[in-house]
Amino acid sequence: MTYRRRDALSGYLFIAPQLAGIVLFVLVPLVLVVYYSFHEWNVLAGTFTFVGLDNVEKLFTDPRLGSVLTATAVFSVGLVVFNLTLALVLAVLLNRRWRGITAFRTIFFSPVVVSLVAWTIVWGFLLQDNGGINGLLAMIGIDGPNWLREGPTAMLSVIVVQVFKNVGLNMVLFLAALQGVPRELQEAARVDGANDRQIFGRVVLPLISPTILLTLIITIVGSLQVYAQIAVLTQGGPGISTTVLVYYLVQQAFDFHHFGYGSALALLLFLIVLVLTIAQWQLRKRWVFYEN
Amino acid sequence: MRSAKPLTAAALLAATAFVATACAGGPAPEAEPAEDIDLRMTVWTSNEDHLALFDSIAEEYMADHPEIASITFDPLPFDDYTSTVTTQVAGGNAPDLAWILENSAPDFVSSGALLPLNEVLEGTEGYDFDDLAPSATALWESDGALLAYPFSTSPFVVFANDDLLAAAGQPTSAQLQADGAWTWEDVSRIGAAVNDSTGKAGFVIRDFDYLNWDYLSTVWNGWGAAPWSEDGSTCTFDDEEMVEAFEFLHDAAFTSQSMPGPGTTADFFAGESAFTVTQISRANLLADGGFAWNLLPLPEGPVGDYSVTGQAGIGVMSQGENTAAAAEFLAFFTNPENAEKLAAYFPPPRTSLLNAETLAAANPLLTEEQIESVVVPGIENGEVRPSHTDSAEIGQQVRASLDDLWVAGADIPAVLEGTCAAIEPLL
């Protein structure tokens, strides 16, 4: 065996465990989902029938899918706007050399490492009609809404719970990016007469735009995969106002035993994520600086 | 740049091989093993006392059956119980025996997922198959075959907090009953008075939470209402009786406030409400010396006395690996002697065990009088909570429709008509 071949073989051996994981847990499920989407699977009866494109056609005739996609879009847009804005504001505030700033950074980051379900259950109690949030509002004379039982506030509640859960992660990424912005550039802008707002908008933001792109992609993809928060807080209600695509997919496949249609919904989700990610990647050329 | 073709080819080859194996139908079913049999039964309880009792019965069985290597009771979370069992079946890991909840019984019974049990139960010496109460087995039968043993038939009852009633200046629950004032209207009137004077809740339908609507059958059955016709083919949510039952509930939640509204919780067992409707097995939540309490049957509705039960069955999964051995173990697990032991926690379907003596031993907190007047009639006459094929999908549709009803000023008949429109295609 030549040196070159030995070199290649050892390389493949090194990546073999990772490759096996990707094949088993990514590629195979992906292929199976496509395969199942062409079938109707009655698990209890043990029947597995080829139905062609029936499940794909059902996507176009399902009367609930429109509302589900709307709820998914509202959740994603709300999450991205709230999360990235708050993360950036926090990062700017915590990018100072104040006394005890490390403690504040830890406090804002700590929800990221808390169990998602535990976090959501606690928020569920706080958001009850007679819960902690309305108790606080009552102290200042405000009669709070029944947060999880009314359509608009239910969606807002789910978004806010998710924002507070994960804002710390984006905050840390922004913090790292801000600390990488050369101080001399900001000082040069100041010497040229720029004020704080101009420095932030014209110097800092362009320099951290690759990080903004990264957090945008991560947050959008994450928002399209939200499940536990919906299951714990609203169960998709009131009505189906908070039934997002993944929640609907799991319901169809595992609760209603429509594994074929659930697979078709999973393919739809895959396509949405793919299209959005490609679109963002292409759009980066317009607003991401220092991108080769 | 070097080509990624070898990697891609390897990945696709592996994926294709895996899919081909998974989808090719596999080899013909193998004969069931005759020795070293491992049995697994899924259960929703993780109560240590329950599991210890199950284990002791299993050990006794294994002592006489050397072919059985192990019997495992696999507790699954209650909320996702049925989905988890079906996912296990889909993954080729079907349990040998499964505990099945009443709301999914029609799906399991009608699909062929369960092994018919008559032959093995009737053929087991000393089993006394005819002792099983017909009212208990009805839900689990199809074309004359019994497909699951009605393991637990637990009546819904009312617990009353007499201390809270006294604090609100109201008569005790026993007094109410003695005065013939044990109707839903009375419960709501007194509940409203309790709420008004103490700030605590009047009555709570436990586990309903404005989501699990089928618990409301404990109320609407008193109006003679039902969600669908007896054969399950027609929606009856919009019938007059159901409209009246929901008008009562809506009034209790939004006008008299005798029942906590949506998004408000009150735990009877923590002393936060005057009455609660729940299953008899919840008696174990009563804290020693917490407050003076009483056990009563469901209040009378416009149609008079009635009772409702929750039920669970145990079946042998047809797709399990050891169906014959599992059926034989089930016959032992539920024979008269073991049914009496299990009655300590699970009200049995055997008529010979439906007596105050057996049930009092199982429920030391309850008096014989309470058992005779509330528990036994509840089991004997109780109507099982509503169930239907595709219960999960129907349940979700009903829940989503009824959300419009749980607001002040709701148009109740219109919402219930909408509920029927939503579920008719599924019936």
Walkthrough of the structure:
The complex is a heterodimer of chains A (292) and B (427). With 292 residues, chain A is mainly α. In chain A, 74% of the residues lie in helices and 3% in strands. In chain A, strands 1-2 form a two-stranded antiparallel sheet. In chain A, helix 2 packs across helix 13 and helix 12 packs antiparallel against helix 13. Chain A starts with a helix and ends in a 5-residue tail after the last helix. The mean pLDDT of chain A is 92. In chain B, strand 1, helix 2 and strand 2 form a beta-alpha-beta unit. The radius of gyration of chain B is 24 Å and the shape is globular.
Could you describe the largest sheet of chain B, including whether it forms a barrel?
A: 9 strands, mixed
Proportion in helices of chain A? over 70%
N-to-C SSE series of chain A? HEEHHHHHHHHHHHH
Percent in strands of chain B = 5-15%
Greatest contact between two chains: A-B, 37 and 41 residues
Overall pLDDT metric of chain A: 92
Instruction: Tell me, briefly, the overall form of chain A.
Output: globular
Instruction: Tell me about the largest β-sheet of chain A.
Output: 2 strands, antiparallel
Strand content of chain A: under 5%
User: What oligomeric assembly is this protein in?
Assistant: heterodimer
Low-pLDDT segments, ≥5 res of chain A: none
**What is the ordering of alpha helices and beta strands of chain B?**
HEHEHEHHHEEEHHHEHHEEEHHHHEHH
Beta strands of chain A, count: 2
